[in-house]
Every structure is written in C-alpha cells, then in structure tokens.
Amino acid sequence: MKILGFESTCDETAAAVVEDGRRVLSDAIASQADMHALYGGVVPEIASRRHVEAIAALTEKALADAGCTRSDIDAVAAAYAPGLIGAVLVGLSFAKSAAWGLGVPLIPVHHIRGHIAANYLAFPELEPPFLALAISGGNTLLVDVADYTDMRILGATRDDAAGECFDKAARVLGLSYPGGKPMDELAQQSAGGVYKLPHAHVDGAPLDMSFSGLKTAVVNLAHHAEQVGGGLDRAALARDFTQAVSDTLVPRAMEAARLAGRKTIVAAGGVAANTIIRRNLERACAEQGCKLYLPPLKLCGDNGSMIAAQGYYEYQAGHTAGMELNAYATLDISE
Fold first, then answer.
1. N or C end of the chain: smaller count of CB under 10 Å?
2. What is the DSSP letter of 92?
3. What one-character-per-residue DSSP string does 256-320 give?
4. How would you classify the pairing of strands 2-7 and 106-110?
5. 330: buried, middle or exposed (CB in 10 Å: 19+, 13-18, 0-12)?
6. Region of 103 on the Ramachandran plot (φ > 0 left; ψ -120 to 50 alpha; else beta)
7. Nearest to 277 by CA among 290, 294, 264
8. Can you count the helices (H) and strands (E) in the chain?
9. Is 127 helix (H, G, I), strand (E, B) or coil?
10. How far apart are CA 318 and CA 108, in angstroms?
11. Can you list the alpha helix ranges (DSSP code H) found in 72-231?
12. Are 282 and 91 contacting, i.e. CB atoms less than 8 angstroms apart?
C-alpha cells in the first residue's frame, strides 16, 4: 500500500511516499529555517504563506522521486494536529484536495504519532508496546505506546517544550535559529559544571516536567553578564543547560518505562538529535536493561515520511476521515 503523506505543522513543508508503513520511496522537504532565522523564530503568517508556495511542486517531486504516478497512490495522509493552525491548514487542505481528486481515502495523523512512527522506518523490527519519549520544539511527552494507534500520555511538560527552550537559550547566547544544532555544537566545547541551573519538579505529578524556570535562568545569566560587561562562559552555559534538560527528561523516561512495564524505549522528535541527551539515554537504558531505539538524525525533524508511516497503521485501524476534517492547534495524542 502506497501512501502519500503531508507534513506542514510548523516551518517545514514535506511530502513523501511510503509503502506499507515501513519503506520510504521518497521524502521531499522544503525548509523555511533561513527565512525565520531573520526573526529569531517562526513567524506563523510567513510559514503559512511559504507552505502555500511550496506544497504543489513538492508533491510532484515526491511522486517523481518515488517513481509513482497519481494512480499508484492508495491513500493520502496528513498531519492535522497539533501545530501552528494556519500552517496545519495548508497541508491538510491540500491533502483533502489530493485525496478527493485521486478518489482515495484521507487519513488524519497526529503530528507526534508521526514522530514516533519515524522509528518504524529506521528499525524494521520495532513493534509496540514501548515507552516513547517525544521531544520537539512544541511538545514534550512521555507516551505509553500499547499498540500502533493505542497511546496514552504518562507525563508532559506543564509549560514550555524542551525544543522551545533550546531555541530561546540559543538566541540569548547569540546563536542562530533553529537553536538545537548550534547549542549542541557549543556544548561539546565544555565539560560544564560551571553554572547551577534549576531542576523543576511538579508536586503530585512526578512524571510531569517544567522548563520555563530553566529558560528564565539562562536568560537572566546572559543578560546579567551583558550588563556587567562580560564574564559569561557561553560553552559552559550551553553544556550545563543541556545537561539540565537531560536531567529532566531521562530519569522520567526511565521511571515511566518502569511503571508501564516496558523494556523498550523509543526517542522521537527534533530534540532527540541532541548528542548529550542521546548519550545519557543510552547509558540509562544500559543500566536499567532496556532496549533503546534512537532515530537517525534525518528522521528526528519534521518530515512527510513519518506521517505516511503512521498513516498506514491508522488506516489499518480504520481511522479515515471525510472532507469535513478540521485542523487543530492542540490535540491530545490519544484522540
């Protein structure tokens, strides 16, 4: 079964063709990062307009790269939530038109379910059940994946997502947008241990997280150094910040796996590309006797193949939609 998948929840326009949920035939992506770097972050209106400009030609490229004609497509999948609402609407509206024009089913896919499914493309042997640590620019979740479409949130951030904090910290340290990669590179230049940063806990919800205090602490340190005329060790701060994020994520992921009775842990999302977090997850899983799946870097960010991959399993579960399907800025992964 060949599925044409669309992803447009933020600042990447993506179209891909995936066969039977596991084999990538094509994956075309148009990034807007250079444009949004001018503003230090994503401008929603610009993102939406760029999606409109790119999506038709990108779809033709995805079909050509896959060696497919329109008649070869068996279904169309689209990310319909969560994300920047204008951006999501572009991809979903185009997907609706494609499904209607081709006379094939339309499959709604939750964006975070797609990130988790990216691992199916890299690891043919991977099957549920497992514990997923989903960490991206807009979401930070601990998800018990009982089956391909049966998922339950065990823990989540109460405020900022981990990826958003990386972007904000990168900006005050004078790094480019998006901040994940330059922060990772800067952190590798120091052993850290210089700055004492907050590690938040949520009373009564030990698996939940909070990153707003950490973000504020980094901003205050940078601003204070600027006001007094220097004295900021940027590499050490990047390292200590990254370690603080990891200290929030990794122990909770291990505890969630223990409580859910899972011996397999899967990482997903853009922050899963971070070198220090990956290394700490590997160490923790080895100590706890868990099998760890880390997606290759090219599958950590937003892409169309992950939406098509999850779309296959949503279709198998009978989850299709009509032309009345709406887009949502926020939506629980279990819905």
1. C
2. H
3. HHHHHT-SEEEEESGGGG-HHHHHHHHHHHHHHT-EEE---GGGTS--HHHHHHHHHHHHHTT--
4. unpaired
5. exposed
6. left
7. 294
8. 10, 10
9. coil
10. 11
11. 85-102, 111-122, 162-172, 180-187, 212-228
12. no
Q: How far apart are CA 241 and CA 248, in angstroms?
A: 11
Q: How far apart are CA 31 and CA 303, in angstroms?
A: 10
| CA neighbours closer than 13 Å in the CB half-sphere of residue 237 | 22
Cβ atoms 188, 238 nearer than 8 A: no
Tell me how far apart the alpha carbons of residues 218 and 249 are, in angstroms, rounded to a whole number. 18
Q: What angle do CA 298, 93, 70 make, to 5 degrees?
A: 70
Instruction: pLDDT tens for the chain, 335 residues: list them.
Output: 999 999 999 999 999 999 999 999 999 999 998 888 888 888 999 999 999 999 999 999 999 999 999 999 999 999 999 999 999 999 999 999 999 999 999 999 999 999 999 999 999 999 999 999 999 988 999 999 999 999 999 999 999 999 999 999 999 999 988 999 999 999 999 999 999 999 999 999 999 999 999 999 999 999 988 888 878 999 999 999 999 999 999 999 999 999 999 999 999 999 999 999 999 999 999 999 999 999 999 999 999 999 999 999 999 999 999 999 999 999 999 87
